[in-house]
Sequence to fold (546 residues):
Amino acid sequence: MSIENIQNEIIEEFSMFDDWEERYQYMIDLGKDLPLIDDQYKTESNIIKGCQSKVWVHAELKDDKIVFTADSDAIITKGIIAILIRVFSNQHPKAIIDADTSFIDKIGLKEHLSPTRANGLVSMIKQLKMYAIAYQTQLN
Amino acid sequence: MIMIDVENIRKDFPILSRKVNGKPLVYFDNAATSQTPQQVIDCIVDYYSNYNANIHRGVHSLSQEATDAYEHARQTIQRHFNARYSREIIFTSGATHGINLVASGFSSFLQKGDDILVSALEHHSNIVPWQMLCERTGATLKVIPMNEEGELILPEFDKLLSPKTKLVFVNHISNALGTINPIEYIIEQTHQVGGAVLIDGAQACPHIRPDMQHLDVDFYVASAHKMCGPTGVGILYGKEDWLNKLPPYQGGGEMIAEVTFEKTTYAELPHKFEAGTPNISGGIAFGAAIDYMNAIGFDALASYENDLLHYGTQKLLEIEGLKIYGTSPQKTAVISFNLEGIHPYDVGTLLDKMGIAVRTGHHCAQPIMDYFKIPGTVRASFAFYNTKAEIDALVEGVKKAKMMLS
Fold:
């Protein structure tokens, strides 16, 4: 499925929630459920330090697509990571480079991607795009 | 018992009646910045509406009025802190600026082999300038350790102290844990070996009224924005002798007496340290904020806040799995806590959704978090305009967050 289609799917899912509690409970459950990254990749070099929470990101290329795995020490951050991975993982580098992240506004989580929030998520998206650019160069 | 009329006091603070995320605001981030009463806001508006002018140089009436108001504020601050002379009060941009001013000045007094002592309870801003100073001068930075309760271990301090100790830096009250440090003892002992003491009073001044002459402290810094005043202004108190010895920090207008291309003569205190056009409205409003707090009275607000602290501590501890960091009996109205197995960021995020403002993270005090081996804490800090009903809302909020997260 294309990045845009997945984003629309997520927007539709979130539109079913009545209030912030349902929305956050859903994210917390996403954060709890997913084993997001293999422990061997939870290294210093894969860490993105936010002031508030830490994020680990790992990327590898499989059949010309990038597979991302990631984790965080805070569960709400982890829930948002789960959403970002669903959108960006298993996609071609070019599609990741071109993708925008405005769907986050539409599901009411904009505040988590504010640079002042310092939870590591803004840097994480930057990192995902950097990996995509690096692998794109490799494929060319 | 001295009482304060909290319902009437709350009417002075327009921000306290706003909503956040659709809920009435519960503001428990007072240790980061306090809210501003209408009286102080009016003071700033009055300045810009009626007598905005540059100070200390104009011959015209507006400049004279602004200068008088600014110097009047300095005297208000001098009386509040019981400094001997108003020239011992230097306006700064805040506590951090004052600390840097002293650190920079000391670089000409220090040499290799000298020691600087800092407490383990410091804010980042109170560590970095000294590390830089030690790098510049070859002096050694030594840390006064703390115990499990978040208190400084005084016998360890005694051991570190020697004639090589040139400077000791301790906060009056820890921002992360709320511990009140025994600064009287620290000042006395340091003076016995011939060292100087700088106290960071940023967290103390909203709760207590420190007496400079009684403390016999060499330097003391404070920030207006934690004392119901505006951001971007604060003071450095320094004993006159010390301030005369310290070289100027910044060059510019206001700090000079005479300039030729060969030589510049520096201005007298306090102007020697006040280069350029200062935060005039901020200084004047700082004076108004101090008047406001004194009208309520520090004894009254301290006893009221203490009551909030005990109530909040007791209520929060009823929640299973909640641990409080900083358990010294000598502490101000700050409760730093975590829920077992839950990241503080998650708790803070959900509390914000409920309109409750707390601080989460390491509170710019990473060494303390490393000591407790935690990524950070949730910190609720109270002011005299907070209520027990708001604490009840916090407790309910924490319970709800716990339910959602576990």
Notes: The CA atoms of residues 17 and 23 of chain A lie 6 Å apart.
